[in-house]
Amino acid sequence: MTRIVLCFLLAALLSACAPTRRGSALADDWIESPNHGPRRPHMVVVHYTTNNDAETAIRTLTNPAREVSAHYLIGRDGRIVQLVDEDRRAWHAGASYWSGHRDVNSASIGIELDNNGREPFPPTQIDALLALLADLRTRYDIAASHVVGHSDVALGRKVDPGPLFPWRTLASHGYGLWCDPPYPTAPPGFSLEAALQAIGYDPADPDAARRAFRLHFLPDRDVLAAAAVEADLAHCLIRNGTRFAPALDASPQAAPEREQIGRTR
Ligand SMILES: [Zn+2]
């Protein structure tokens, strides 16, 4: 009897120690190749938390009932807290689209910034973000056009990191696209709708893509002023690609809308 119990315990122990694998039940054999490695994210999505302090955000981002997380949280003081292994799929983008990818969570690193959505981002916090982006770029092939905001990938649902986020500063370091005015005139027949899709926006809702584009690239202009230049700007962004084109300083002034952290799995 004792031997039976021991065998049972040994079998349970061996099965607990056995590596787990995910795959199709249709496979007839499991012959493991050593030639593989972790999946490689190729996007970064920037968020703000909507909270007044990092501790509140950490409670939310680690609460199983909230079903929301990010790989990193950066405090107002520049402290970087990692919450999810980079090999794992954090739940930060939710229903989303960028440049043909409909599962942004699977393709991206999510970075939350401790910010309530109504205040400027402190330089110390942005410096830490730039350092983290530089570190990520040493390990992953992340194109400048693939550093985006939650508002860019979740059209009509999200507004973070909002109009106060310094996209121009990021672009000057090679993260995200940017063009400064005056923009060269777009050629005749230039399609803004097609341009936004080429930049990465979801073509399913052109009006929502246009609003997200304005929030990101023209946050300090009202609707009429934005409409007057948006085609030229989109043309400039596509023409420049990853090349930063500094000229005039554009400081976003508009007040952001509030967003709430919700389920984003
Ligand atoms: Zn977000």
Instruction: State the total count of DSSP E strands.
Output: 5
3D shape = globular
- Bound ligands: zinc ion
CATH architecture: 3-Layer(aba) Sandwich
Question: How many structural domains does the protein architecture include?
Answer: 1
CATH structural fold name:
Lysozyme-like
Q: Write the H/E string, N to C.
A: HEHEEHEHEHHHHH
Largest sheet: 5 strands, mixed
What value does the Rg take, in angstroms? 22 Å
Assign the CATH class.
Alpha Beta
User: Strand percentage, roughly?
Assistant: 5-15%
Strand order of the largest sheet: 3-2-4-1-5
**N/C terminus separation:** 48 Å
**The CATH homologous superfamily:** Peptidoglycan recognition protein-like
> What percentage of residues falls in helices of 4 or more residues?
25-40%
